[in-house]
Design a protein that fits this description.
Layout (H helix, E strand, L loop, with lengths): L1 H23 L7 H7 L4 E5 L8 H17 L10 E6 L4 E5 L9 H19 L6 E5 L13 H7 L5 E5 L8 H22 L10 E7 L3 E6 L9 H17 L7 E5 L45 H10 L7
Parallel strand pairs: 3-4, 7-8
Antiparallel strand pairs: 1-4, 2-3, 5-8, 6-7
Helix pairs in contact: 3-4, 6-7
Amino acid sequence: MFIICVSLFLCGSASANDNEFNDSKSNKISEPSIKEFENDPSFIAYRGTLPETIDQKWENSIVNCWFNLTQIGPSYSEFDNSIKNVASNNEMLIIELGSAYKEEVNDSRIDEIYQKIEDYCEQQEGIDEIPVVFMWAHDEENLPLPDYGPQIFDEVKTESGFITTRGTMPVITDANKKVEWEETAGNCIHSFRDDLQPYMKSSDGSLTGYGYNYRGYIFVAFDPKSLENVNDSIIDEIYLIIDNHCKQEGVSEVPVVFEWRGEAIVNLAPAVELDVNESGDTNFSDNKETIAGNEKTNQTPGFTSITAILLLLSLLVFKRSA
């Protein structure tokens, strides 16, 4: 009997040790929006506290903190070498860690990363206990970029929500050149964000977001509820602003796709795409759109599935070099 008890104790201890990190994943998770992340196989952990009421002020603070982290603040390596992407869905931050670090990441390391991010966001935006979801990133090799060229515009024209295009798609087939193009597009987006603010929904405009799509173009999203306010004149006006800023970055006839998107999109950092909406409108697109993945947006819709969120993250991800 003694041997059996000892054996059960040892087995229980071993099981507890094996599941210690997994158990931490449920740390303070009660909100449905966070529970949704927990059900995803890429989920690692959750830290922070989500407020009972998510208002525009909160969303603006989250997006601003995200933007500072990805575009203004220190490189990701200063927080931790494992960080590959930083995204946001307007309610919380989403930190993607490289899968190569799976053997090294544990509760202690997650806590250290979170503390640095919390300190930074509290200093920048006054957010205490900022909610952060940690996920494993989809490595680039698993998300091959398509060849860029005129055929991309042809594909986009058949997709739902499409309005029109402006500019010319560059022809790029070299992988390194694609990355360079994404970085250039990210700088371009960053340069025109202030001039597009008056057009944002948060400023009583019709735009719900904008960013970079992994297929090589910048996207601009209009609220479907503003049909009467969207016409060729306003599209040309917005494109002129974007094109003028992009020319300063060395890009002529920058490719832009105008589309309908009801939810604001989230911004992420380049590496794939960068979307910047300063008002709390976060751009999250469907095809790797964000600074941390492939397309960036400024407001993230309430996705009904984690798969959609991850795809958006990939699309909205602008990878930031360490």
